[in-house]
From TrEMBL, chain A:
Any one biological process term the GO annotation gives: amino acid transport
Top-level taxonomic group: Bacteria
Similarity comment text for this entry: Belongs to the leucine-binding protein family.
Keywords tagged on the record: Amino-acid transport, Signal, Transport
InterPro entries linked to this entry: BCAA_transport (IPR051010), Leu-bd (IPR028081), Leu_Ile_Val-bd (IPR000709), Peripla_BP_I (IPR028082)
Cited CDD domains: PBP1_ABC_RPA1789-like
Pfam families on file: Peripla_BP_6
Signal sequence bounds: 1-26
The protein's name in its UniProt record: ABC transporter substrate-binding protein
Family annotation (Gene3D superfamilies): 3.40.50.2300
Domain Leucine-binding protein: 31-379
TrEMBL record, chain B:
Membrane topology: Multi-pass membrane protein
Coiled coil start-end: none
A single GO cellular-component term on record: plasma membrane
Pfam families named in the record: BPD_transp_2
Protein name as annotated: Branched-chain amino acid ABC transporter permease
Amino acid sequence: MGIASMLRRGALALGAAAIVALPALAQRNDPIRIGAVLSVTGPASFLGDPEDKTLRLYVNRINAAGGVNGRPIQLIVYDDGGDANRARTFATRLVEDDRVVAMVGGTTTGTTMAMRPVFEDARIPFISLAGGIEIIDPVSPYTFKTPHTDRMACEKIFSDVRARGLSRVALISGTDGFGQSMRTQCQRVAQAAGITIVADEQYGPRDSDMTPQLTRIRNTQGVEAVVNPGFGQGPAIVTRNYAQLGIRLPLYQSHGVASAQFIQLATPQAAEGVRLPAAALLVAEQLPANDPQRQVLIDYKTAFERETGQPVSTFGGHAYDGLMILVEAIKRANSTDGTRLRDAIRATRGFVGTGGVVNMSATDHMGLDLSAFRMVEIRNGQFVLIGN
Amino acid sequence: MGAELLQFLVSGLTVGAVYALVALGFTLIYNASDVVNFAQGEFVMLGGMVTVFAVAAGLALPLAAALAILVAVAVGLLLHRLAIEPARGASAVTLIIITIGASIFLRGVAQIVFDKQFHQLPAFSGSDPILLAGAAILPQSFWVLGGAVLVFLGLFVFLEKTLLGKAVLATAANRLAARLVGVDTSFVLALSFGLSAAIGALAGILITPITLTSFDVGTMLALKGFAAAMLGGMGSPLGAVVGGLLLGLLESFAAGTISSAYKDAVAFVVILAVLFTMPQGLFGRRSVERV
């Protein structure tokens, strides 16, 4: 046996040892791979863009602080452009090629529902950032979501209507997806909330004049309050027409228009006195000092606005909540095994996020209650928190 | 009940006047070239968006409006020069497809040059509604209606009383014959693109205080304006105005008295019924089969 051949054998043995040792090393130092499929561009980009920025911002922060259980996080983001087909392709790629341990994302209800079977089949936890209640009702074992639902918005509005001693409500809804979904939920929860719906008008998402519908509502006997489930410029025009017709009944808008831009479009005069349920982020500075969410909200808002130079939005907040719930769960599970991670996410109790205080369970994969919504009123062109 | 109907009437007339202005733009270009210019809605968008951004940049409203019309006319002329003129001789269908492409292109550019947000413009003469027999009417509605009437009258005088206008009419009647008597039909086509762009931009400026605007506001308006032009009879300016007002009234009365969920369906069913019985529209020229 020559020296050369001995060397060769030695090298082989070393190589074999290295191959055996690699997985063990990987367990300790390899990054934790977290996937995200977001609608960063396309029609839902106003949702997906802040989500993308938030995830990148906080993954960097976590890694700079030493990672999770000593391992860094590797974030893999794909942009589906709002297209459910592409979302599903990317979901498959995340599972099969990127081998992610969990997924935070799914900007719209449509993309989420398209991706859900992929993660359910692979038994990988999937925390969606979309609003639709069908994502978690009925519960799928591996699918969670962080934003509140339109059903909760209806319940919040109706409880405020009841608190004013009123009960007969008129609906004027957009015919877009958001408006129709919330209209259905409002009709469903009305009876339990002690509300009678006495008028049900609709308008197209690009309509420019809603005075005929509002005139009909005004002429309906016994209407005591008006609720406008809608999104985009429709609610702004409804609010303007409402003022134009001089209707004096309380007007409720949805959480879909909870932004300063809505007041500007509707004009502050027309929007005066309009109420809407909104995430606490909208009125973070107005929360009392003992509010559990106050500090979390102000921290997130400061970090996001300093990093991106853009005003904070609740949508980015949903991504923050999803990522943090996942990170906490990985720490608690001390594992990245899909089922153990799922159990840990399910065991989330008292997590304070931007969307509310989260208490998950085997039957509740969202974990928010009505306190997650704050009722705000528009006064002098500003959102003002009113007593809950 | 009377006040209610008056409210529907005003609402329908205001929305209808917008459709009428868009339909007039369709009519002008159609007459000069047999082309239905689907980028017509984008002229409306340009009118609104340029005004909003110019006002935000500190320009006075009349100046901003003038600028918006200039920009739209420039875009209209460029559209003709760069997209329609090089393809002259192609069939009308090809040219129509080119305008659809141009419409998508203009929307994309607007998305980048401006932004994807909705914008508003303050009403020209206050936003306190005028109460008339129980109906609340926005002063801006009068601006829109007045604007539509002025444009229609101006167009009428231009077409009937000026030599240039006669050239446009001659081109509309018979392109070959017009060319034989010395009308520069290519110039007439460029002129009609410029003119429809100006009318579209004016419509956009007048309606923005009521309807708000965004980069993609033109799509729906083009569709409604097209329906109005078909209803009135493609190629007839009077038909465009009547069709537009009728469509607006149909929508508002359907929403107010029948069902707001099916108001668009009601309007389109009526249009279909009209076109079944009068395929040329209400004021359309009967096409004569030449042997």
